[in-house]
Structures are given as C-alpha cells and as structure tokens.
Design a protein that fits this description.
heterodimer, A: alpha/beta, Nucleotidyltransferase, domain 5, 2 domains, five-stranded mixed beta sheet, 11 strands, B: alpha/beta, 11 helices, 10 strands, globular
Chain lengths: 233, 333
Amino acid sequence: MLTLAFESSAKAASVAVMRDGALLGQYFQNSGLTHSRTLLPMAEDLLRNLELKLTDIDLLAVSRGPGSFTGIRIGVATVKGLAWALDKPVCGVSTLEAMAQLGVAAGEGALISCAMDARRSQVYNALFEIVDGAPRRITDDRAIAVAELAAELKAMGRSVFVVGDGAELCCRGLAEAGIECRCAPEPIRYQCAWGVAACADMSRAESGADLAPVYLRLSQAERERLSRMEGAK
Amino acid sequence: MYILSVESTCDETAVAITRDGREVLADVISSQADMHALYGGVVPEIASRSHVEVISRLADEAVSRAGIKKSEIGAVAVSYAPGLIGAVLVGVNFAKSAALALGVPLVPVHHIKGHIAANYIAFPELEPPFLCLAISGGNTMLVDVRSYTDMRVMGATRDDAAGECFDKTARVLGLGYPGGKPVDDLSRGGCDTAYKLPRAHVEGHPYDMSFSGLKTAVINIVHTAEQKGEEINRADLAASFSAAVSDSLVPRTMECLRELGYDKVAAAGGVAANSRIRSDFEKAAKAAGVKLFVPPLRLCGDNGAMIGCQGYYEYLAGARGDSSLNAYATMEL
C-alpha cells in the first residue's frame, strides 16, 4: 500500500511517500517560504523522482492540526483537492501524534512530550510513552501553559524527551520548573511527513469532504465574543 | 471545454462548472454572511475555516448538478487575488491539487476580472471593448475592458470601497451586515436631498474617487444627533447617502465612457445590485444613447461561474498556473 503524506503545521513543510510502513522518500523544506508555494511542487518532484504517479497512491495523509491555522489549512486544502480529483481516501493525523514517532529514538519506556509553540504562553502538547517500539498516547491533544505541563510531569516523577518545533521553548520552561528533560537533537526534532505517513491508517481513513482541520482553539473573534457574552451575564 | 472554477476570496465559497466560458452548467455557492453578521463584518479566520470545511462538497455538488464526469473537466480556474489571504489560500490550494490530479491546466483568474466577466454570462451578445464600473465590498474601479484579458484601470477609489461605505453606514444606522441591501431597502421611502453629504473629487485625477469623507459625514450626523438627543430620519439619511454614492460613480463613469468613445457600459460587483445606482445608470445611459449592462443580482455577488467564464478567456489567451501558484491579498488588475 502506498501512502502520500503532507505536513505543513508550522514553519517547515514536508511530503513523504511510504510503502507498507517503509519510507520510500521524503522532501523536507525549512526555508520560510510559504507552504502554498512549496508544498505541492515538493509532492510533484518527489513522485517524479520515485517514478510514481498520483494515481498509484492508495491513501492520502495529512497533519490536520493542531498548529498554525493557515499552515494546517494549506495542507488540508491540498489533500482535499487531490482526494476529490482522484477519489482516494484521506487519513487526517494529529500533528502531535505524528511527531511522537520521532520519540522512538529515546528508547523503550521513554516518556515523550510533543510540543508546538501555540503563542499566548502556551504549547500545543500531548504526552506519549514508547511501548513495544511505538508511541502510545497518554494524554489528549491540548493547548496548555508550560507551567501547567511542568506540574503534571512533576506529579508523574519521570524524565521526559521533548520533540516538535516547540521543543526548545518547552524544555526551557520545564527545566526552570526543575523537570528533568532532554530536547530532541535538531535532525529528529521537527514534525515531518514521515511521521504523518507512519500514523496514517486505512481503517481510520475518510473522504476528503469529511476531513476537517483540528485547531484546538476558536478564532480570536469568537473568543472575544464569548468573553463579552460571559461578561454580560 | 468544461471548466471547474473555484472562488473563495471573501465570505462566499463557490464552485462552478461552465462550458466555453459563457454557459453555466452549475454554480454552487455557500454564503457565510449569517456567520459574519454576528461580528458586524467578515472575520477572516472564520471565513477561512468555513471555506476549507465545505469546498469538497461544493465541488461534488457542482459536478453532479452539471451532470458531467470529473474526467470531462478540461481545466481548473481559480480566483487567486485579491482577497482575504487566508481565505484565498483555501481555494488556490484546493484548485491546484485538483488540477494536478486531474492532469488538466490550471488557470489563475483575477477576482475583479471575474466580476467583470459576470456580464458575459448575463449578456451573450456583449463583447469587448466596453467600460466597466466594478463596485464591491473590497474594490471600486473604472476599468477599460479593451479585450477579454487586456484591461486598464481608468480610475479607482483612493480610500474606502463603495461597498465598505454601505456596510459602515448600515452599522451606524443600526442595520445588519452586509449593509448593501438594508440601506437600499431603507432608502426607498426617504428624501435624497434631506441631508447634505459630500461628493469628493481627487484633484488632477478626474476618474478617481474617495468615499472616506462621505462615510465620516454620515457617522458624524448620526453621532451629533445622538449627543443632542435628536431623532434622525433614517430613511432620509439612507436615501441621501445612496444618492451621494451614486453621484460619485455614475457621472464619472459616463464622462470616462465619452472619453473612450465606446457605446457600451457595464457594471459589476455586489454594489451594482443597489437600486439607486442602477436607476441612475439607466437614466444616464439612455440620455447618452449607449447600451447599459448590469448583471442580475445573483451574478453581482461573488460566484464561481464568473471565475469559470473569465478563466475560459484567460485559458484561450494562454494564462497558466503550475503547482507553485500562490494566493495574493492584493494585485493590480
């Protein structure tokens, strides 16, 4: 089974092709150029180099969030266009679950904290544990203050391996709170399409029409409106 | 040739199937106006979220209503500028990957050129050259349509778009969003000379317009009356305002038409639905002995068919986008 996966949830963007769980190729770009310009050409180039056609693909996959609202939408809209034209199924994957794959490097039993910079002094985060060589989820995806995460980890009393584009930010905060943590080294720190492909599963696939981003946050206008309505009560 | 066209520059998601530019087989539009009404204006993030939710279903519905197979689509046209960037990105990225996967050309279309092209759908006999007044919530410009794809801006607003001015006026009069229709409805019973409102001129640029002074004047009238505890006649103010907008648009358009020597003038965009502007245009065109083209209401607002129509002519002219096509918030015509 061939999977074509897209990742565009933060500054870097990547595309990967996986055959039956093995990575055939990945194109990763962390140039700061807009994903709208780079994402689809990466897929086109990668497939051409692999001597594959879009019609050969069995499953499309995309990181559906959390992350940059615009970045996620570029990935999701791209995959929706492909799915629509090809009549192929799509698997939307949690950005945090996809990056947890990087935590396998920390070894069996390791506690993995996935972290993205969510601004407003928060990180998008989920905790995983490496069991039988694969990440197993401990918490849901959430937007959480680093201090709150530190308190949670302190209660668990374990050291933690931190991955994701927010790893440095998260580690700094955790270290200040006295949590023993290791920041994933640069080459295996950032979420990438390989992780998305590795998490994608035909049994969880849906139609492109049903695929929806997961933002974990309302828009600013909605938040402000809700707080005004709360205030008026 | 069948074209699949996509429009998502503001608060309407639209997908259409057109044949050879002028024949509309399906034009599916999902409007978010009710959602944005809660906020008194378009919220870009909410608009973008909504576009990505509905776009695949709209494309499915367009193809099914048109009664064609996806494999019969000959090109994909997309409105790629100008607009709310997060919103435009959704349509552009969907359209790009659909074109790539279908193996057909991708045709980028300027949103305003699409509005002008709505006239070709409404009026099969219309061909360039003609002068077009493009008036919407985001743009106000006089365009010399020299050919289907070669256009020149003769004049434009220096500040607010005419539609923006209607929305602000509606808001200050306590009417809903979008403001065009409620202001129009309210103005019908009003006296259009009851309030003295400015008609701005831009020195040395006879075809340029300005609406910020008019907007401010309306706001001042309402606020001053509030402070003094006086009642304003809302219908009179709406009528006086509509007349001022029309006076800023119609005489300029007719003057520009005389200079160009064309015998055809058209209007495009959401504000072209305004009844005062329409009737003033009709009178002016009749007096000048020129033909006037104003598309029906449903073609004045954002829609996918107009992008498919313009996309066809852009396709014939050789315009192509590739998988690196980007979306742009602003772009010259």
